[in-house]
Write a structure and sequence with these properties.
- The chain is an alpha/beta fold.
- The chain has helices at residues 36-44, 103-122, 141-150, 166-171, 199-205, 226-229, 240-246, 248-263, 279-287; strands at residues 2-7, 9-14, 25-34, 52-61, 73-78, 86-89, 94-96, 130-133, 155-160, 176-179, 188-193, 207-215, 234-237, 271-275, 294-298.
- It contains nine helices and 15 strands.
- The strands form three sheets. Strands 3, 4, 5, 6, 7, 14 and 15 form a seven-stranded mixed beta sheet that branches.
- The two termini are 21 Å apart.
Amino acid sequence: MRKFRFSGRPEPVEVQRPEPGPGQLLVRTQLVGVHLGLVRMLRAGNASEPGGEMVGTVVDIGPDVPGTWLGKRVGGLVFEGVYAEYVLAAPALVTELSADVDAADGLAVVRGGLVAMGAVHSGGLIAGQSMLITAAASGSGHLAVQIARALGAERVVGAVGVADKAGFVRECGADAVVTYNDPWDERFDVIVDGVGGALVPRAVEALAPRGRLVVYSAGGGSVEVGSLLADLKTVTGFSMGLLTRTQPELIESYRSQLWKLLADGVIRPHHTVFAVEHLDEAIASIEERRNMGRVALRMDATTP
């Protein structure tokens, strides 16, 4: 089978198809996500066989896995070696996709949608409140804009790196769009930040009294505690890992909400799908921050 290894840039290699071990699924991939985490690993030189989100079909199962998994179309997270024709996945980290779910829509939702849903909920959004979402054109951010609107936010503002993305974010349902270089004069009840770095203290400053900042970026950043005190502001870190391990029922409730929103047309994932031969171009679109929505790689030539 073909898979990609990363030593500087992606290199296709032929390897033997893996065999599922105890508690594992063997999935023939259709689509694989290309994400900012991969770009960061490439820059750091530690992206030999990275993980990520995928959509595909279960073709084999390991010992102790129920036979009902065979033949299911699934999407979810793989921690290692996801850029391959076949991947090993844990049942707890994937979900079944119904036949009427488009593969690219499913890929956008299974991970980026979960992150967006979890981050918005972590902010304790109350119907009628306002929300600012950074990285609003990203795979998770553009869904967070739509989810915030669906959950009753009265005003949703997207923040983006370049003004060229403003039209796309407005199409996703944002009332207004600001860039990272613009002054942020408005104050918000909730801010969801997917960028980090210098935007973290700016986001704290842009919170209304009793406002909540949720950060889910690996981009770092720091908070001066004194800036929180007078207006009772709070900052919450968000990651899917702990919730997946300790509150699987919460993850399932998020998934149920997402699939219903998708089926009802309330959220509309945006994606750009590259042929497997153009993985370099897919990575470049992320590196150069040209992407809007989810970027995916088509591993299976039969995928629409």
